[in-house]
Amino acid sequence: MRQSHQLPLVGLLLFSLIPRQQCEICKVSKENKTALKPLIHTMINSNYTKGIQAAKVLLSLRLGGFLNQNQDQHLIEQFILTVRSTEPSLTSGQLALAILALGACKGPDGISINYSELVGDLENKFQAEIKNMEDHDGNPLTSYYQLSLDVLALCLFSGNYSIPKVAEIFKPGNKNYYFHEQFSVDTGAMAVLALICVRSKTRGQNQTDTKDLDNIDNHIKLLIRKILSQKTENGLLGNIDSTGEAMQALFVSSDYYNKNQWVCQKTRDTVLTEISQGAFRMPTAAAQILPALMGKTYLDVNKDSSCVYGSDTFHISTQKPISVTPADSAPQIKVNYSVVIHNAKDRIVVSVADGSVFLNVMEQAQKENAALFSFTAEETSWGPYITTVRGIKANTNDRTYWELLSNGKHLSKGAGSYVVHAGDDLEVRWSTY
Ligand code: B12
């Protein structure tokens, strides 16, 4: 059931009667925009403006109007080439993000994009996800985060998808919203954005079964409830990296919860404090938080509306991002490192330079004993993702992966960004999510 918009009681200030969208209220003011500069610099001065990993960065910069026309033209031209050359090997969510980035707004004349071909390919990749779920105990080829991106892009770019199927698979109780039985706020937020899009496109359509639409309404309501239940004392939604997309989900779904359930200014102010303390150093992390701070959501993607170009010129670097590897002169620290497979634990103590990240420890251990500590990593939009350890490979069909822990605690950062401390007990554990 939907919340009704009740007028505030007599005595409240007149301006509170003016309906204002959450995104407008929460948007960073003009005077405070300089606070966002570190995010923009992180995104622009990274090699993530190249390759398929650029999709989220490009989407974010274009939605926020942070590029000038030349930069936009240059980046889009480069990105089209990337998409063309990699398209068959892209996952469904990567292709969906690429479509959202290319069609975020109407770019410079002279660039033509064949959306119908891309959308057709996405329809096929989405079908393959569903087929995989049917064949493998409900597990998609990738994740529900990606399936949500798929539905969002198909919905915004007039692709085909089945509304009854969407209503069926996006039930909030589905295991794919959970990792280790913990609700994934990122996944829930992306699903809300997709479902709100589907819901708004079907408003007033007679041919859609009202039962499916009621179910979708119910899913949105329950997902929002779950997202809000992950609100922390200081207003973050889930953790720092899920907050941006959760804010977007809450912006577009204000009809589904009571206004007093979320003080968006508190969330925004905590995020601004985090930025001033150096958070969001990774381009993808910066890209996920920026749209919400500009009062934008992925539902603002519109290929027919002209791009807004910023007057600021940001220098675009083609260099690799500054490496987190500490200087050779840094003092050495000792850390414990273990590979855990079921009940078997192989442990080693390694010395690494102070300031090293988890990955450096894994590399050192591999150097010292390749038989026990060999591993492989794959470059992703969040940095290196550990795919195999001792030849054992993560697999989405049986929901297995290599989990990273420090001192027994599940880490909320990856191997390439978690800075280790002397005496840490680091672990990669063969786990099921
Ligand atoms: C799905 C998912 C997973 C799945 C991935 C497998 C699958 N079924 O797809 C599982 C549950 C296995 C997983 C594991 C981890 N995850 Co995860 N994951 C996500 C989620 C919800 C969606 C990723 C996605 O599909 N993106 C869309 C596609 C199009 O982009 P992509 O770059 O091609 O996606 C790939 C990578 O994102 C990669 N991946 C997933 N998680 C992580 C984490 C890191 C650090 C890296 C480098 C890569 C990576 O898997 C995707 C498929 O290949 C994101 C949320 C988000 N906002 O992105 C969190 C998220 C990326 N994960 C996160 C973390 C911390 C982890 C772990 C490090 C947790 C841990 N302690 O072990 C591990 C990775 C360990 C390792 N082996 O390197 C954080 C990263 C934060 C950060 N600052 O680094 C995020 C942002 C969640 C959050 N809000 O905290 N994850």
Walk me through this protein's architecture:
The protein has 433 residues and is α+β, with helices and mostly antiparallel strands. The protein has two domains: 14-300, Glycosyltransferase, CATH 1.50.10.20; 332-432, Ferric Hydroxamate Uptake Protein, Chain A, domain 1, CATH 2.170.130. 42% of the residues lie in helices and 13% in strands. The chain is built from 15 helices and ten strands. The protein has a five-stranded mixed sheet with strand order 4-3-10-8-9, covered by helices on one side. It has a three-stranded antiparallel sheet with strand order 5-6-7, covered by helices on one side. Helix 3 (54-64) runs parallel beside helix 13 (283-293). Bound molecules: cobalamin (B12). The site of cobalamin (B12) has 39 residues, from helix 5, helix 7, helix 9, helix 11 and helix 13.
Instruction: Supply the number of structural domains.
Output: 2
Count of distinct strands: 10
Order of helices and strands: HHHHHHHHEEHHHHHEEHHEEEEEE
Quote the CATH topology of the largest domain. Answer: Glycosyltransferase
Helix-residue proportion: 40-55%
Which stretches of 5+ consecutive residues score pLDDT under 50? 1-19, 317-323
How many individual helices? 15
Report the C-alpha radius of gyration, rounded: 22 Å
Report the portion of residues in β strands. Answer: 5-15%
CATH top level label of the largest domain: Mainly Alpha
Structural class given helices, strands, pairing? Answer: alpha+beta
Largest sheet: 5 strands, mixed
User: What topology, given as strand order, has the largest sheet?
Assistant: 4-3-10-8-9
Span of the ends, CA to CA = 32 Å
> Could you say which small molecules are bound to this protein?
cobalamin
Shape: globular
